[in-house]
Amino acid sequence: MTPSRRRLTLSGAGGVWALTLLLSAAAAVATSFIAGYGPIDAPFGVPWWALAVGFAAAEVFVIHFQFRQEQFTFSLMELPLVVGMFFTSPVGLLAARLLGGGLALRLHRRQAPMKLIFNLATHWVETATAVLIFRALVGGATGHDARGMVAGLAAATVSGLLATACIAGAIACYEGIPESRIVRRLVVANFVVSITNSSLALVTVAVLWVSRGAGWLLSVVAVILYIGYRSYARLQQKHDDLELLYDFTRRTGRALQVDTAMRELLSQVRTVLRANTAELVVRGPGIDAPFVRTVLRDDGDVDVIPVGEDGLWRRVVERGSSMLAAAPVRDSVLRGELAAHGVQDALIAPLRRVDGEIIGMMLAGDRLGEQRTFSVEDLKLFEALANHAGVSLENRHLIDRLRSEAADKEHQALHDALTGLPNRLLFQRRVDQAILTNRSSKVAVMLLDLDRFKEVNDTLGHHNGDLLLQEVGDRLRRTLRAGDTVARLGGDEFGVLLPDLAGGEAAVAAASGVRAALERPFAIGEMTLDVGASIGIALWPDHGDDATVLYQRADVAMYAAKESQRGVEVYEAARDTYSLERLALVGELRSAIDRGDLAVHYQPKADIVTGRVLGVEALVRWYHPRHGPVPPEEIIRIAEQTGIIRQLTLWVLGQALRQCRTWRRNGQNFDVAVNLSFRNIVDAELPNDVRRLLDEVGLPPSALTFEMTESSIMIDPIRTIALLSRLRQMGIGLAIDDFGTGYASFSHLRRLPVDEIKIDKSFVTHLASDESDAVIVRTIIDLGRNLGLRVVAEGVEDRASLDILAAAGCDVAQGYLLTPPLPADELDRWLDARSHAVPGTVEPVESPEGGADVVRLRPGVGRQR
Fold first, then answer.
1. How far apart are CA 110 and CA 351, in angstroms?
2. How far, rounded to the nearest angstrom, does the alpha carbon of residue 571 sit from its chain's CA centroid?
3. Within its chain, how far is the Cα of 129 from the centroid?
4. Which of 292, 356, 573, 800 has the fewest CB atoms found within 10 Å of its own CB?
């Protein structure tokens, strides 16, 4: 009798292999004692191949019994074992057990190699032990006397308990020490089954000893016993299922909070159905609202995720009943719908109100245990659970509350947290919608950038800068029409959509009115602030056919407005000297990623005290065959605007991780840092992508650090902090890049799950000559130390700045004083040269990226602690 457990973890695999080797060694020792024994003095012998057939049949015709997530499997294995001890040689019995049982386990039950090897080792030690005990007890007796019968019963029973101990050891390796209740149940059930089967086997021996021809009658008894076991198991299973159903109803009915109730409901579904995945799907409020998936994660938290159209939902609504999708699923469409939920087989049931209306769908996916997929009996139990779940959800109004939560999440995803205005994503959607529904008038897209905002932010602090942005948003709303859209696109940049205009003159008039409204003084606290705005205008269909092109051309017009100092400009193709080039670069960048034409350079970061390289920052480079080097900020801007930033980031991440693995194998045990944009840190799939890449490369999460700017984090802090927390829980390092230049830095820093802050190079470059920069740098270093964060100084280019940083207590230096960013092979040579240098010295070298001389930091440079 064996239990089937959940998936094997990596740490458990080592324990199981060790246990397998130990069992094999013990079995080999026992075999060495019995190898010389021949058959006992019996009236006839049973060929080993006949016993092999018996062992195979015992493994094929097994009884499965399940309780919660434990599945027990027992068989009539003692029959061929006891018969073999009396009528076959020990070596023949071992061969029959391993060959017959092994073939059945592999070909019929399709056990994985590791599990198969463990079971064969268990069978080997169990059989060898049984023969050893039997031969020690039987002595000179024969199988026809009482001593031989007692010896056979003792051998089979003790070897069965030994097998139970082996299984318990495997369970401990898989998931830790099992509950005492489960162990007791396993031992008692095994003991009862072993005694029963062994007694039948001894009766078989006694009958065969007297009359070989009567053996077929005993096969009838064996079949009846098998049917009896099976019937008992089914009755017991029904009893346990009723108990589980009662427990399910009690637990879900008792939970009052949304999170608690959903976690309890989905956890119980996974437990009762022995499923790896459990989730609910409901439609959000409104006819065109997205679907809402509520998924129980492995860590016990519940994710509420708005999604698009759901194929399984459509199937359930059309069928109006539950559905069993057993593996292997041959319908390719259904297989794809299941894959969208991350499962290979599933039970799906509608959730109904009392009046019969379908209010949702419940799914249990990926069956665990020896039974490789769900059965019709599972579906019946699942339907009962779904009925109880539907009533529970309706009684506690959880569906409506889930929809409310989904609507809140949708609002947060589409609106700026600071001003409450639509964000870039919603703005683009509304531009696309205005173009689709417009038939006769013009559509104007305006981008405006505040003048003198940086001075306000730097002089009066981020808090007052935030208040000013809120006031600007309110004033823009009051100035424009009810049907117009005002959005905050990031920083001090705002977008305005005018969906129904007579022409360009009306757009210019509206922009002039906006600019005039913003030129009126703002009262912030006890201060009166004067700001202005530069506004660029692009019109549909005159200047573009979609939101992306209109946005780009309004951006061009806005910069023209800044340069002309007229405040308002309409896009003119004659002044757009680089728009065609940029549009061409969009397609070429995508192709460059696919072909691997980009490059990754690495800039080291060194400990200021010891000079030891702690890590490198990975920086993307693109040398265009016609335009030459493309600035990195231009690469990122193009990737963000065209939606390929995820593809670009994953490419850079993969290159950096593989290079880091190479360095570590060569003895350079440092980490790699990769930059993330705003679109990366609101991508819910990023943690899964990162985990997949780390597994492929074979690096621990601690080898990776992600860097992101304050501004990108604060665009949507609720979503970004949640995602960054997931990355931090994985063990990945997090750093704030360009620290000191973003918004609400100090007020939000204590909430951010980060390990490191990087002082922006604008403060470090003139550190030795500008006392105000020195004050800011010292303040940031003190802040980092007080919060327990590592502080990195970027842009360290001279020895004087390095000395100031060292004296202030900065931890790490990065910049041209060490080296510019280098390709991996050149960095290897740089590292090799440093390893042969005299400690405490510097060496000027030629910069491969800028042509200027730089100084290499050597071990020993910097302050002493």
1. 35
2. 44
3. 46
4. 356
Give the alpha-carbon dihedral of 182, 188, 191, 192, to 10 degrees: -130
Assess if residue 849 is contained within a domain: no
Q: Is the dihedral of CA 671, 674, 680, 682 positive or negative?
A: positive
The domain total for the chain is 4
CATH (domain of 369): 3.30.450.40
Q: How far apart are CA 693 and CA 630, in angstroms?
A: 27
Q: Is the pLDDT of residue 239 over 60?
A: no
Q: Hey, what amino acid is at 567?
A: G
Same domain assignment for residues 781 and 828? yes
What strands, in cross-sheet order, belong to the sheet with 302-307?
302-307, 291-296, 275-283, 358-367, 346-352, 323-325
Give yes or no: residues 541 and 452 share one domain: yes
- For residue 677, the enclosing domain spans 585-838
Work out the number of other CB atoms within 10 angstroms of the CB of residue 13: 13
Give me the pLDDT at residue 574, please.
Answer: 64
Q: Which residue has the higher pLDDT, 751 or 277?
A: 277
Nearest 5°: CA angle at 150, between 144 and 152?
A: 80
Residues 357 and 496 both lie in one domain: no
**Cα–Cα distance, 76 to 225 (Å, whole number):** 9
762 vs 648, which has greater pLDDT? 648
418 belongs to a structural domain: no
Residue 562 lies in a domain: yes
Across 195-204, 517-526, 789-798, which has the greatest mean pLDDT?
Answer: 789-798
Distance CA 500, CA 486 (A): 15
Q: Which residue type is seen at 515?
A: R
Q: Are 246 and 272 in contact (CB under 8 A)?
A: no
As a dihedral over the C-alpha atoms of residue 90, residue 92, residue 93, residue 97, rounded to 10 degrees, the angle is: 140
pLDDT of residue 1: 41
CATH (domain of 597): 3.20.20.450
* Terminal-residue alpha carbon distance, the chain: 64
CB 270 within 8 A of CB 278: yes
List the CATH number of the domain containing 553: 3.30.70.270
CB atoms within 10 A of CB 427: 25
The residue-averaged pLDDT of 363-367 equals 87
| pLDDT of 607 | 92
Higher local confidence (pLDDT), 26 or 217: 26
Shared domain for 155 and 32, answered yes or no, is yes
d(CA 230, CA 617): 63
User: pLDDT tens-digit profile of 410-419?
Assistant: 777 788 888 8
Residues 700, 775 within the same domain: yes
- 730 three-class SS: helix
pLDDT in tens, 669-708: 889 999 998 888 878 889 999 999 999 999 999 999 999 8
470 and 618 part of one domain: no
pLDDT at 861: 34
Q: Whose CA is closest to 861, among 776, 801, 820, 785?
A: 801
The counts of H helices and E strands in the chain are: 29, 27
Check residue 258 and give its pLDDT.
47
* Furthest CA-CA distance within the chain: 116
Q: 177 burial class (0-12, 13-18, 19+ CB within 10 angstroms)?
A: exposed
Q: Are 730 and 705 in contact (CB under 8 A)?
A: no
Residues 799 and 677 in one domain: yes
User: The tokens of 823 are what?
Assistant: 């390709």
- Amino acid identity, position 542: D
Q: Write down the pLDDT at residue 525.
A: 75
- What's the burial of 431, exposed, middle or buried (CB within 10 Å: 0-12/13-18/19+)? buried
What angle do helix axes 645-665 and 632-642 make, rounded to 10 degrees?
130
User: What DSSP assignment string belongs to 738-792?
Assistant: EETSSSSHHHHHTTS--SEEEE-HHHHTTTTT-HHHHHHHHHHHHHHHHTT-EEE
